[in-house]
Amino acid sequence: MTADGDGGDQAQTQGDGHFEEFVEFLTAETRSDVRKTALNYFEGLSLSSEGVQLFKENDFAIGKRLRTLFHTSSSDQATILRILTNICAHASDCVQFVLSADGESGSSLITAVCSRFRTADDLAAAESGAKLLSNISLHNAYAVWERLHGVWPDFVREAVALLNREDREAYTNYVGYVLRNITTLNEVRAQVIEDESVLLDLLPLMNQERWPKRKRIAVDIVRNLCFQDNRHEQLLSRPQVLVAVLTPLIGPEELSSEENDLLPIELQYMEPSKTREPDVDVRIKLLETLYQ
């Protein structure tokens, strides 16, 4: 997924003649308007396959410049994060570069991103950071979780709380994507399952229409939880889980008394107006959840 959210537009590059010149402008000492022009050039370039290849050249020379600039020019951080997000949407080796340490400082750019995106004081930078973490966690969930947990110990609980809030919608959705991606890890799944309040706050998102993206996030997370066989009994011990999974699958069909009695009590004798979840992908994921 690229930083503009569409994942597919290809940028028109300005020609090789500008490339080396613009690289030299990626320093905090460069005049701000010139530096902004250079960053805008690389942001456009980052949407193309040519841009990805250029990013990798000379041992990630552009990336190293951007990484240093991120730490030395706070006003450029949102743009830098968008560039890195676009690059990481294309290549796993670019993801590994972003995850690597900054040489002598020993501090990881991604750790700095985790710290900044927690507070959301600068919403533009926070949204850009959340998008980058979303892309990286698709490739390396553990690396993101390791760094994120170090600076945001209550991330799982607070992310679910954010998903139930109305404000900062774009930022919150990307926080949700990060949570979805890291629930592929046993350690994170354990946190969700064992903290009953977190799990019960997550389930209502599966059966609401206000935030379709968050519904899909919640469904994906619950499906991830069910991939862990040794947790099935624990999940089923909370009847709300099965109710949340089955409710979207139930339509207006009439059931016999015997069939009805097999359902959880909350699903018996539902209103005739009850309709089935219209999103086919959501229904498929719910069925996959039941078959785990």
UniProtKB/TrEMBL annotation:
Look up and give the organism this protein is from.
Plectus sambesii
Q: Which PANTHER family match?
A: PROTEIN HGH1 HOMOLOG (PTHR13387:SF9)
**Matching InterPro entries:** ARM-like, ARM-type_fold, Hgh1, Protein_HGH1_N
Taxonomy of origin reads: Eukaryota, Metazoa, Ecdysozoa, Nematoda, Chromadorea
Task: Give the Pfam families listed for this entry.
Answer: DUF383
Protein HGH1 N-terminal domain location = 164-283
What is the official name of this protein in its record? Protein HGH1 N-terminal domain-containing protein
